[in-house]
Predict the structure.
Amino acid sequence: MKKMDKALEQAEELVSKMTIEEAASQLYYISPAVERLGIPAYNWWNEALHGVARAGTATMFPQAIAMAAMFDDEQLGKMAQVTGIEARAKYNIQSKYNDRDIYKGVTMWSPNINIFRDPRWGRGHETYGEDPYLTSRLGTAFVKGLQGDGEYMTAAACAKHFAVHSGPENIRHSFDAKCSLKDMNETYLPAFQALVEDAKVEGVMGCYNRINGEPGCASDTLMGKLKEWGFDGYFTSDAWAVRDFYQGHHVCEDKEHAAALALSKGCDTNCGDTYPCLMDAYRKGLVTEEQIRTAAVHLFRTRFRLGLFDENNGFADLGLDDIATPEHRKISLECAEKGMVLLKNNGILPLDKSKLKSVAVIGPNASSLDALRGNYYGTSAEPVTFLDGIRKELGDEVKIYYSEGCHLFKDRVEHLAEANDRIAEAMAMVQAADVTILCLGLDANIEGEEGDEGNAFAGGDKLSLELPVSQRILLEKVLAAGKPTVLVLAAGSSLNPHADRAGAILQVWYPGECGGTALANILFGKVSPSGKLPVTFYESTDALPEFTDYSMAGRTYRYLTGNVLYPFGFGLTYSTVSLSDMKFADGKVSVTVANTGSVDTDEVVQVYVRDLESPFEVTNYRLCAFQRVSLKAGCSERVSLPLDKNAFTLVNEEGKRVPGSGKYRLWAGVSQPDALSESLSGTPALSLQI
């Protein structure tokens, strides 16, 4: 556990020795050294979304959305634990050389637990999907794994972006998200509450936009929630978000007033360029010495909880040999394998390489490192692209033809060539091969954060669910050839590839440094796919509400009616399962799961609940439990799933959580209990009324 009281006492004592100027200087994300007090410089901005990011070599795990598709909080906790160890090891190394630059500390600004409410949002792949309960479970596992349970935290997690934040990216600096009290407390806040109350997350980051008129980094409503939940960590602004107070939101007249507003509401540190003017604001009487010192105490409390002033903190021996190890790489591979989702299979998979003479590997993502990374990534010591993984698996036994096929989003690969300059090459290979593995999709250059993206016209967001035109042309040509084709989609969000003629479709997300190995293991049957969609795959954006509409009506599996291509919670395996003998007692659902097929596989048992009489229930039902189970062919297992503590409560229109009606229906299955999910999966859900 954290050294809660002692850390606070130590922080108060240290800050009391500082001048007001020294204390104010520490509230900037680039905190300078105070040499007379033995305080080294420290940079608060560090990233660890799926492994230590932007700081050189580290184990690169699958992107967050891919790990959400595992539906496995235990595995995600292992990933986070490794990330914490590597962060601490890298901090030790850099500190020995007095390198205290950005991205080289141990206050990690992860995880992103915003709700992926709209498939157009470019940063959605940073999240754990569209469901508040799934996000809460996975976010809690991340925080506990990263922070550890020792005397000192291994690294400090930070829940972001608080709250009601999920695009559009190009107007985030001025946008006001209008949100009902019901939606806020039912959808947007539960994960933050869980991370504060259950995981004891050390940091919280505010968002760029306003929420019902209040800037996310200076919101009485949101800060009140943190106080209500007992938060006792530090609060940081998002990057340059305080500047938005006067440049974008126009709630302040200038920089000094913006700094004063943020500090007065509880923003301890400023990532950006505003807090360097705090002393000017102090001299003008806009902020008090007490406010400055209180924020400084919060920040040093975190540094003491990390043991940064204790040479015997237990982490001193971590170094180079604890970074990117074979053991860590193995966990990354397991995450990639568990997260890939088989959306369609007409029997073509798994491929039997003993029956193949040649394979065509086609597409702009086949040999792409960006297709492995997503955004906020570290440098892998040994990345394996999809082509690399397939080539290693097939060796010299099977001929491999490779063509890029097309550019990811431009109409030609070579800028002096004519449009579609790789189509002929690709089609020759398709015709020559026994089977085609077509690697399409996106990368973080065309779905990402504002400022980081290639599609600047959309600020990082997608305009539709279609593949880029260049890929649509390639896909149509390949499928029209009528040869056996496996479509591999690397993307962090919902797409509609219009690929009904493909023999199989695999959603592989951005699967990390071992993505190619994981893909090959699944394609050739070494591993059964077992991932489940943590987001709904929609047919089209045309039937969705406006992107700027933050109401949940018509969004996500809980409130959606129609417009579903592949449902939340869906994913096939290479085997078949049956469920039987569903029971409910003592807050738990128990069910027997049998592998009735001939292939060993993992499955994810999912439990959904619906209040049968309350007017405050969602349109459909809510996920309230899940558990991954490994089953040998022909074997069965009895599983018991504790339900979400809020399974039998609901949020009313005033935003209050209230008891349910007392009459509920529960479903247990390997997908949602709707007709489309059951048809696609071939496994009907069990149900009982209580």
